[in-house]
Amino acid sequence: MNEPSCFRLPRYPVRLVSLRTGLTPHVLRAWERRYQVVTPTRTEGGQRLYSELDIERLRRLRRLTDRGHAIGRLAPLPLDELIRLEDAAVEADERPGELAHDESTRFAVESALRAARRFDAAEVQTVLERAAVTLGVPAFLDQVATPVVERIGHGWAEGSVSIAQEHMATAVVRRVLGWLLGVYEVSGPADRLVVATPPRQVHELGALMVAVSAAAEGWKVTYLGPDLPPADLVGAARQTEANAVALSVVYAAGTPDLIAALRETRAGLPRDVALLVGGAASLQIKQQAEAAGAQVVDTLLEFRSLIRRLAPEKAP
Amino acid sequence: MNEPSCFRLPRYPVRLVSLRTGLTPHVLRAWERRYQVVTPTRTEGGQRLYSELDIERLRRLRRLTDRGHAIGRLAPLPLDELIRLEDAAVEADERPGELAHDESTRFAVESALRAARRFDAAEVQTVLERAAVTLGVPAFLDQVATPVVERIGHGWAEGSVSIAQEHMATAVVRRVLGWLLGVYEVSGPADRLVVATPPRQVHELGALMVAVSAAAEGWKVTYLGPDLPPADLVGAARQTEANAVALSVVYAAGTPDLIAALRETRAGLPRDVALLVGGAASLQIKQQAEAAGAQVVDTLLEFRSLIRRLAPEKAP
DNA sequence: AGTGTTTGTCTAATACCTGTCTAAGAATCT
DNA sequence: AGATTCTTAGACAGGTATTAGACAAACACT
């Protein structure tokens, strides 16, 4: 934390704390009187002054009481204990407790899944587009698109989602990602990236997300879609004078062929063109892929920071 | 800042400061007397002369007190502390609002302006759409759309931008905002807002931004465009069973008519429907508008936090 | 069911904070 | 010169705090 000590100075009056915590002034005083839940300092006149920390504590307390905890039990606990409790509660709710799931992103993900379950493709699309525009591309990809795809995938694996539903949802996500890619059609000079999926790999969502990420970073992206033979990939990269080539790998099955394809691609590309490999199965083939001259990227986040370092054009 | 020192010279009399801050002269004097909130220099005759800095300080103080801070506590704080407090408040309000005045927002603004100067409407539109999708709606409105509109306005005022260029840019911004509004077409139940501009007020950009802001917050927005007579506004609000009505006011000229229109609107609306007034000229008519039963909102940010508090549906 | 605890809400009396107003005089403007 | 705006100092009222205590709904446990 880079906060100077002034951050801790108590200076928030009751009404503001009430607004920021969602607790009425009455409740704030009752909690303090009965459980010494916080002990704000006072003005000379005796009015309460809460600190930033008090507010954080109170907000957590409210969320926990909302979830059913008794304030009387919660009150004596130190802050880190509250944090632990809340994390536990969230984890219990959430399947895979992603990063700090915001209200609104949670809502978007759940709405999309609900709509998918009732085959309402239009609604899925609306929800996703809205989320994309509201959150901005990077946050959308990390916090909405990825979880939606993952949860649909899980549901399909465990049978709670039918193949048809999975296909529909996938088609919609693909459409939305395609739309985003279109928004970023670049006119001027920029770094160029070619994105595809190696032969036999038919899941293109990962590749599309990579493409959109790069486009959002200002790259000129040539998206070639799934299942592309190395020779054609190399040809496209040469023709577009690409600065980098990205491949998405979802299945580890058929690894030998895959590695061979990587090797062939690497061999066909100029030395200074980076070859990036990502996707669900990328970790399983990491060593072999790196031996074949590819860079393995685990997450979209990693991809973004890598691509930023790569950018010679320094496009803003 | 490129302002020469003359900008710091105190030269603003009370009346003007009152208009620019939305504080009555009485309040200005009371704050000074009781808390030495600022210490304006005086004319030989003893009348107050405020500096640009004083005004900034006062505006911040007003916004913070509006949010619930106590003026008595705020008064002794230095300016940077006020800025910090305001940022903290914004951060607490805004969920994903990354207000990092990024390289990329600057770049978007500059590109849009350059494109406007060379009459490249398509490019302006592309840049704006891309920025909207990249940053998310709230950040886009605050950091791109608003600056672009302001700078075009300034340019027009000082002659560096032609009327034609101004018109073109305005048309494009309007188109993009309209597109965003379309993205947010809401299906389910939601809070309803009616947005328009009072008679004689032909600049609709502010109204559109308000509309988009509300839509992004999950409201169902009925956008009625500029120059709407009170009777029709009231009719629309009733038919849509709106929870709130927002008006944007850019010129202070014709204030009496404007206030009359506000009064009429207020009279026609049910008690529990909020009447909000914002826009460049809103501070100048603050007192009269409030007397007419309207709530004055200074910034888009303020509008967002207000609307969130208003939302009875608590739509996420 | 009965009993006791927990907890949010409310009241009443009091005190503080803060916006508004008054009155009389001085400065400024036209 | 007269109208207007600004000045100071003080008064005032209403909103917002404060306390202590009462009450009832919700819950847990016989």
Structure description:
The first copy, chain A, is α/β, with parallel strands linked by helices and 316 residues long. The first copy, chain A, contains 14 helices and 7 strands. Chain A has helices at 14-21, 25-35, 52-66, 71-74, 79-93, 103-117, 121-135, 137-158, 163-183, 205-216, 230-239, 255-268, 286-291, 300-310; strands at 41-42, 48-49, 192-196, 220-223, 244-248, 274-278, 295-296. In chain A, strands 4-3-5-6-7 form a 5-stranded parallel sheet, sandwiched between helices. In chain A, strands 1-2 form a two-stranded antiparallel ribbon. In chain A, β1 (41-42) and β2 (48-49) form a beta hairpin. In chain A, α3 packs parallel to α5 and α6 crosses α8 (137-158). Chain A is elongated and about 80 Å long. The two termini of chain A are 28 Å apart. The model of chain A is unreliable at 1-7 and 94-100 (pLDDT under 50). The interface between A and B is large, with 36 and 36 residues. Chain B binds a DNA duplex (30 and 30 nucleotides) through α2.
Topology:
Two copies of one chain form a homodimer.
Chain A: H1 14-21, H2 25-35, E1 41-42, E2 48-49, H3 52-66, H4 71-74, H5 79-93, H6 103-117, H7 121-135, H8 137-158, H9 163-183, E3 192-196, H10 205-216, E4 220-223, H11 230-239, E5 244-248, H12 255-268, E6 274-278, H13 286-291, E7 295-296, H14 300-310
Parallel strand pairs in A: 3-4, 3-5, 5-6, 6-7
Antiparallel strand pairs in A: 1-2
Helix pairs in contact in A: 3-5, 6-7, 6-8, 7-8, 7-9, 8-9, 8-10, 9-10, 10-14, 11-12
Chain B binds a DNA duplex (30 and 30 nucleotides) through helix 2.
